Amino acid sequence: MGNMCQRSNKSGPKFRTIVPNHTVPDEPIKQKSHPNRTYASNKIKTTKYTILTFIPKNLFEQFHRFANLYFIFIVGLNWVPQIQVFGKEISVLPVIFVLAVTAIKDAFEDFRRYKSDKKINHKSCRMFSTKEGQFKNTEWKDIHPGDFVHLSCNEVIPADILLLKSSDSQGTCNIETSNLDGETNLKQRQCVQGINYGSQGFSPKAFTYPVVCDLPNAEIYNFHGYIQLSEADNDRVPLNKDNVLLRGCFIRNTDWVEGFVVYAGRETKALMSNRHSRYKRSKLERYINRDVIWCVSVLLLLCLSCAIGSALWLQQYENKSILFIPYESDLQLNPLFQGFLVFFTYMIIFQAVIPLALYVCIEIVKLLQVYFITNDLDLYYEPTDKRMECRALNITEDLGQVEYIFSDKTGTLTENVMEFKTCTVFGRNYPHSSDEDDDISIAGSRFSQANVSRNSSIIDNLKLESELQRELSFMCLRSIGSIDLSLPSTSSQGLYSSNTKQIQEFFLLMAICNTVVVSTHIREDNMDAEGHVSNPALNNISQNHHLPEVPRDRSSRLPEIQHRKPPLPVENLSKKILRKSFSPLPPIATSSVNGDVPHNGMDTLSDRGSVTGSTMKLDMSKICYEAESPDELALVKAASTYGCCLLKRSAYSVTVELPAEGDVEFQVLQVLQFDSTRKRMSIIVRHPLNDDIILYTKGADSAVLSVLHKKYRTDEELKHIVQQTEEYITSYAMQGLRTLCMGKKTLRVGEYEDWCKRYKNAETAMEGRDEKMLECICALEKDLDLLGASGIEDKLQDGVPETIFNLRQAGIKVWVLTGDKQETAIQVAYASKLVDKTQEMITINTHNLEETKDLIEHHLKDIEMDKPHSFRKRSARSLKSADAEKKKEYAMVIDGASLAFALNETDKNLKKDFLKLAEKCKSVVCCRATPVQKGNIVKMVRDEQNKLTLAIGDGANDVSMIQTADVGIGISGQEGMQAVMASDFAIARFKFLQKLLLVHGHWSYDRLARFVVFMFYKSLVSTFTFYWFNFYSGFSGSTHIDSLFLMLQHVVFHAFPPVINGILDKDLSASTLMKNPELYKVGPANFTYTRLSYFIAALDGLYQSVIIHFACYFAYGEDVGIWEYGTTMMVILVLAVLLHLAMETHCWIWPQWLSMIVSFLSFWLFGIIIDSFFFTWDHPVTPYWVMQNTITKPIHTILVVFACVLALLPRLVIKAIHRTVFPNVIMKAQLKEKQERAQSENQMLSRVNSPTSESSTSEGPRADSVSDIPTISEAVSSQTAISIPVAVPPVSFHNGTAHKRSGSIKGVIESYT
């Protein structure tokens, strides 16, 4: 229904009307006359099949695959009597096996979905019963749009409901959306305001109004609608996303809520936005599909040659009777007709040219590769108990072929744990770090692991500014409301400095201009699970915010209060002031307060807090802060540290503690949320003392400074203050700090009233609402007065510099795409080793299209000519050799405005020039980039350069580039899980990317590439072996090998060893790959699987088939039975294929040995057993007791050994020459590993034999230390190999937690990782 509504959205109505179901009590919901009958119920069904439809529907889906259709076509040909080759029943066995395995997997997955649906549908909640007039316990599946539900704290929301009533006196409700978008921070929702329910307050029966809202859609952050109070068009109450509680979220920090169901079941936003793992085709898979076309060509060529041979052979018997061709008509003796039939006969015989098990085995190999990767202890992050996740199972080999990495900065390279460091207020700087701290290197403590206390609502390690402390100690309502902000002023008493009011308002803005949620007490609900209310007064509670708040505890409830009118008209605004007696500012503790509270009180916080930053002020009744943004949390904590503490927040009020005033409540008129277009957030409050309406705004410096009042451009003194502020902001950015700029504006009553009317009209508009609201907000956020700016430190994650350096050494180009200032991004680029001092920096900051084009062309010419830009650079380069000059590296920095011009679709040449310039740069930093620009950059490199791209990020603004890239990786960091949910792989730290690519990526690509080549080889060698026999059978289509062996060789006898190798084999150890990143280059260069790989495998298979067939032919001569001849040939074929695989194996462990032995024994024993019975297949003679007789003859054993040696000898010789005379870097590393292993064993034996060796070795350094081991580049230049010690920790997971195990490496998992 939801999808139907979406489709009808193009031509039909764009909204729908929902009426309360109790207004039509006599009509069942599904009756045609019921207005809500067409809307989906809350019953969900995610299963694809039923018992009756499973077989036909599953087969229909499987037959959509080309490979399955091909083999079904082959089976159908075999049922045609004139071209039948094998027994009808036997020919079906391989296809049935493949289809059955896939069907069982699909059935198992669907059964799991069925059990999940059943469990969810039978959950219960309290729904209002029209007949009984109260809430009753009801299963989720029985809920429909138009029903009312009652939910308690920590209860899961069963459908998308409109919030109408809350236990909170301010009409707010907090929800956790982790099940929807992965974010664990709390979000605040508010009840619908503007409805008069009378003296009794809200009740389901009192709500009789129709609700008009959007058609069901997947936009979880958008909701448009209104409640029609009467027939008048202007008598409406607007609705937005803050009034809706979405299915799957949790009620938090709220005793109970009641709401009206608007979307249910499959029409809820949660289910409509639910996306399964996206299917991506890997680079290697595209190459495989290309080579499958060559397989088809080989098949047609072989069949055509046999058909021609059959026709020519039959033509020599013209006018003669042919006894060995069954006569049905004269047409049977026609050479052309017989050649036509033989063509299809050989399609059956040579069907193995296209490997039947190839795609099935590839899926198995990738699935088990993912299993072992996710169980790698080195990719597990203990502080958050998160390990590597794989959400796309079919692109593991792409991890080993990445050429470009596009990375976000905040939360990806940095911790995204913000710490307030400094600020500037009205042109004056207030640094919060000592001189010693400023001398610390950028790569040191400033960009180290975050050291922010999460158990305090103040910043424990913040060095407070004494001047700010003095100014804020006198902060009260009078001081922030009586002094004009236009120009600095000085108090006559000397209590205030020139910046007193600005300082106080600056910190007040930090405390209230945010969406931080405050929680203070335990939540409970007086309604039990059956809908019975223990305290009847609970039903009379309504949202009236005019009356004073009555303190609550576990034994008392709120009294009856009247419903509150909308807050927009100014004349109805409350003027209440909650004020404590005046008292001087108490001393502000600068040390940790963790020791003041028992430890057990801290343990319960993590269960109620947010991953994004849950803090508790231990001397303020256990206040818990829940911030959507780490920046907001840092600002609130900084304000709290200085005594301006946020105590309480609701939709229409915010309470703060002022140092010289006590608790003060500001009435919130409007909150204008942050968006990526404005890059600002604002809050409109009413001053409790003088009734001023004040707009406080914070945002990016460019977004705030551009909307300052015009007096800041004309008045010289104010102009100087702005210049100073900009200088300090630039200075903060050069230190790597994130900057936010703050401003304010005092609104006139008439101005605000006019704006309220326009904003209300924009809110109730059903079309173009977002654009109209944006226009209204921008019209208000102008002519601001400047307050100041803040500098917040976002520490670099541990291991980031080493990771980026090694990735660059691996030949991967790393781009950083960030929305931060250019100076901040450059400093982080240097600190993370993305850019070093040896690189020449190219900076592109332009203001128009022509300037961008000219500058890019200028840099391109300079690079091509290698022209120095200064005499100093020229003299420095003159000291270098010519070879060194060729290796000169460049780095480029470009801002968002210039990037928009460079990506302009109207000028294709400019786009190509920009891409050409970026390609010549080793590193690129894009500043002030929007989410759309990030996605466009990745798409440009991916499509224009045909390079394999990887994008990594942690926030919702990174989703675009993550989904655009060939490989998307999400960081499960501080900004929720949206990036993770949109990614192919998820890791907890950026440093894990190093092992994921350099080790697991290399292994996955190498294993799968060699696996595919081997699969093509074994299919071709068997096909060519059967092909040569036809020259001696008159191209009649007869076979000399039992049909059972032909059908089972690829799905049983040869199936398991290559799969085991594709999962467990390792060409190099993890330590070698980590030590030498240059080894990764073999993947992007397609070193293992090239365009010639298929043809080399074909030539190898062709040669081996010639040896296998003609060795048997010349050894036996003509004095041998056809079944003995074929049995010996089959034994040689199976053994040669297994020995070929053994030669290609790098690392032997017990599963590989076992699979090899079991495969050959299964074939050998199967032949003995099957030949012990007499079967009447289609041949006139069956191979009865042939295997037993054949293996007892000496010629059989001699021939098997001789043919296998002769068939594999050329490959063995070529490999030996390659490894000794022309070794590549991989072979050199393998040789050195072997030497290092032998040396370690000898040293161990010497220690055991020599009693004094242990003490002597412990006293001095090791002679074979890691620092003495040459890198790959050094080994290549000196024609030596590498010596790397193998030291890989074992991995074990128990109940989702990783543990280290001591002792030797045991088992398959340890061998893999």
UniProtKB/TrEMBL annotation:
Pfam families: Cation_ATPase, PhoLip_ATPase_C, PhoLip_ATPase_N. ATP binds at D408, K409, T410, E632, F674, K698, R738, T818, G819, D820, R928, K934, N957, D958. It is found in: Endoplasmic reticulum membrane; Membrane. Residues 1-37, 589-610, 1240-1268 are annotated as: Disordered. GO terms for cellular component: endoplasmic reticulum membrane; plasma membrane. Residues 33-90 form the P-type ATPase N-terminal domain. Residues 1-11, 1240-1249 have a biased composition (Polar residues). The chain crosses the membrane at residues 66-84, 90-108, 292-316, 336-362, 1008-1029, 1044-1064, 1094-1116, 1122-1141, 1153-1175, 1195-1214. Its main location: endoplasmic reticulum. Its EC number is 7.6.2.1. InterPro entries: ATPase_P-typ_cyto_dom_N (IPR023299), ATPase_P-typ_P_site (IPR018303), ATPase_P-typ_TM_dom_sf (IPR023298), ATPase_P-typ_transduc_dom_A_sf (IPR008250), HAD-like_sf (IPR036412), HAD_sf (IPR023214), P-type_ATPase_IV (IPR006539), P-type_ATPase_N (IPR032631). Residues 1250-1260 have a biased composition (Low complexity). The active site is at D408 (4-aspartylphosphate intermediate). Its cofactor is Mg(2+). Belongs to the cation transport ATPase (P-type) (TC 3.A.3) family. Type IV subfamily. This is Phospholipid-transporting ATPase. The lineage of its organism: Eukaryota, Metazoa, Spiralia, Lophotrochozoa, Mollusca.
